[in-house]
Hints:
The chain has helices at 43-64, 72-77, 89-104, 114-126, 132-140, 171-185, 281-294, 296-303, and strands spanning 8-15, 18-29, 32-40, 85-86, 147-150, 155-158, 191-195, 198-201, 211-218, 227-234, 237-243, 248-251, 254-257, 273-278, 310-312. It is an alpha+beta fold. The longest helix is centred in the first third of the chain and has 22 residues, at 43-64.
Amino acid sequence: MFRAPIAAALVACTVPAQALERFDFSAPLMATTFRISLHAESKREAETAVDAAFKRIASLNAVFSDYEPNSELMRLCNAGPDVPFQASPPLLAVISRALELSRVTEGAFDITCGNLSQLWRRTKRVKKLPPPDRLQKALEATDWRAVKMDAKAGTITLTKAGILLDLGGIAKGYAADEGLRMLREHGIGGALVIAGGDIAIGDPPPGEDGWEINLRTFKKAAANGEEVMQTVRLKNCGVSTSGDLYQFIELDGMRYSHIVSPRTGLGLTERIACSVIAPDATTSDALATAMCILGRERGGVIAAKMPGVTLRWPD
């Protein structure tokens, strides 16, 4: 079992002709903590379903990780330019969706930003902005249009030398969706899967119209960036929040977010946060980051054209 010691049945709920209990589980996966809440007839049924969900999520780390040198993602990056790479269904699915969202967001979401991500990780470690020449080189290797897919052959081809992919802005949302899918396959629809700031939400709890979700953001007008919790009730969708409330760095008097713009290669300097409600967590995960990069006005225009997508910005 991937269950943490504190996981336990918390609440008993009653629905017509069937008593269900709520169970909560957690596990450290994909460099974060995944949490699952569900309603089931018994602890045994809940544990069986959750074990399958956590195993599925754990298996995806070997596909998507950019920290593991032998992950499928890194093997793709090391294949070299113009070499078709035979990809697994999960990698094909995530990269295909990522490219769709890159097109829709006009490149604000870009999985070819791996070189920029590595530079910014170094920036946070050494507390210095990246050298201009290295930044320019990383920017030149960032181009989502250089990723080509052949759905029929099941291959992905990188057409530009030096591209490094980073799925950090979409993989956890996809993993949460997959966890929820596994729960459904085991007969449990009333559940949610939390992966850090990304949540895949299934059917509502018994007798309720949705799961109560607290969206963490900040008051834009507050000088100290005061935290605010917005409560919504949701079902059968995904929700993600991105922003710089906690993750930022100050260099030479300038505050930089952990969210790196693929256009400048640097962390965002404007205080911003956005919560995205979408048909699935794969989409909400990617869009939450993209909307912060696009900004409220342009992001709002783009999101308005996407069915089932709702944005929530700071007051």
